[in-house]
Write a structure and sequence with these properties.
This protein is an alpha/beta fold. It is 22% helix and 18% strand. The strands form two sheets. A seven-stranded mixed beta sheet has the order 3-2-1-4-7-9-10. Helix 3 links the parallel strand 1 and strand 2. Helix 2 packs across helix 3. The longest helix is centred in the first third of the chain and has 16 residues. The two termini are 28 Å apart.
Amino acid sequence: MRQIPAIAGMETSDAKDRLRRELRQQRRKRHSHLGGEHDAACAALMEHALQAVEGMGTIAAYVSVGDEPCTRLLLERLEAEGREVLLPVLGPQLSRCWGRFTGVADLAERAPGRPPEPGGEPLPAEAISAVDALLIPALAIDRSGQRLGQGGGWYDRALPLRREGALVLAMVYDDELLSTSLPTEGHDQRVDAVITPEQWFLLEGSVFASGS
């Protein structure tokens, strides 16, 4: 677990930007999955994610790209098990929508700079209210469940639409689980659990951890 750089006295948005720059720089040193190769960390992330969503039928996830923690093996396994998986897609007029994952062969870069997306008719943003769990990306997570994302705000808008009782999990590398608190703003959404190559566990303050 790592410390974050000194950001005392900085505006929250500036502090977040500084952290994003450092974390992205660190990720560039990691194994890239651009060629479709997988390593031991990919398999470990899949196994821990499967444990976390055991028994859940409908899951929102994302397609990892570049040096992100790998979700591709997980997506293939979930499909093979017959579970429904929703992935983020850009809908009409760049609306934030979801699409059903039907296999890796259907994934394609359908918008410049976007991760691969499934084909088919986009589902509205509110489709997220039907899922049992949401697996979301992050650059870092702190022990209270606060998440630092890429800055686009997709999940800060999506998470309030989830149903009560849906589990929110973030996937990061082991050293991106921070020992000190992340800077936060009012719109930031917490997560319930973290998945790393080493382990997965519920975070402090989660209703799932407290059993309430």
